[in-house]
Specification:
By secondary structure, the protein is α/β, with parallel strands linked by helices. The chain is built from 11 helices and 6 strands. The longest helix has 23 residues.
């Protein structure tokens, strides 16, 4: 099984929607609005997501106030300085180009972003990175470096979108029996696949390993190898143009064509997933 391929993500989102509001999703077109309706139950009532598209905000976004009040991403929102109209226009342009680049690299990755990411809050804080949190589903907080290119924006968006996918997966099919604070203990840590030699809490180690692979793939497709060199790995799968050969890759077309709804397999077409599985209606 390729965990977090698009078929798996569609199934998990359907189950997530059903768990939150008891609704069954019948078509792929209904999935994003149903997901938004579900996460709006979890988000502050005055910060709802929109059924379509990605809303871009800046340091005056209510999400920044929300983060400051709850000490979420203090290293990003705390030092954020005011941005002028020209800076905001450039951020907007880069985000639009990044979304187009994600589509060009792999349409499945773009579908993942379109399903899960509802808000991007862009800040000038010098953090040179991004953040997402399970208590803010759909929201990506980003502080781009001045030297970032479209690929850097694109990998940041995919990075945080995939974290959100893992949050959804963990809420539907819990991966750990202990709460996050317990996983911080030394005896519940594992060697990081990304921060070489560092022992990290199990949930953080899993997130890092899952997120790193599609980012390496994206860089490889664009002729860059910084992450691969940094992590000192040369996966054979990166030599192939088919991202499904990479665990955590995203593709509809190359999924195994098995249709056994009662036995945990699915069709490569997400509409078939919804039709045959009646997603959200089954157990784990």
């Amino acid at each position: 099984m390729h965990m977090l391929n698009t078929g798996h993500l569609v199934e998990m989102l359907g189950r997530f929607v059903h768990a939150i509001n008891g609704k069954y999703v019948s078509t792929i077109e209904e999935l994003r609005p149903a997901y938004v309706e579900a996460i709006n139950v979890l988000r502050p009532v005055d910060l709802p997501a929109e059924p379509e598209g990605i809303r871009i905000g800046y340091e005056d976004s209510p999400w920044v106030t929300h983060c400051k009040e709850r000490e979420i991403f203090p290293h990003i929102v705390g030092p954020a300085s005011p941005s002028d109209k020209r800076t905001r226009q450039e951020w907007d342009r880069q985000i639009v180009e990044a979304l187009a680049l994600i589509e060009q690299i792999n349409p499945g990755l773009r579908r993942m972003v379109d399903l899960l990411v509802t808000d991007i809050v862009t800040l000038n804080s010098g953090a040179d990175g991004g953040g997402s949190a399970n208590q803010m589903p759909g929201v990506v907080v980003m502080s781009p470096a001045s030297a970032w290119l479209s690929l850097d924006y694109a990998t940041c968006i995919v990075h945080e979108g995939l974290h959100t996918a893992l949050f959804v997966l963990d809420s539907v099919c819990p991966m750990f029996t202990l709460p996050p604070n317990e996983l911080e203990r030394d005896d519940n840590r594992a060697l990081s696949a990304v921060k070489i030699g560092e022992r990290r809490p199990l949930h953080a180690a899993l997130h890092a390993a899952a997120v790193a692979v599609p980012l390496m793939f994206m860089e490889h497709v664009q002729g860059r190898h910084a992450l691969i060199d940094q992590y000192s790995v040369k996966p054979v799968s990166l030599a192939s143009p088919d991202p499904l050969e990479i665990p955590c890759a995203f593709s509809f077309e190359k999924l195994p064509r098995k249709r056994s709804p009662g036995r945990g397999t699915w069709s490569p077409d997400p509409c078939d997933v919804l039709h045959h599985r009646r997603v959200g209606g089954g157990g784990r």
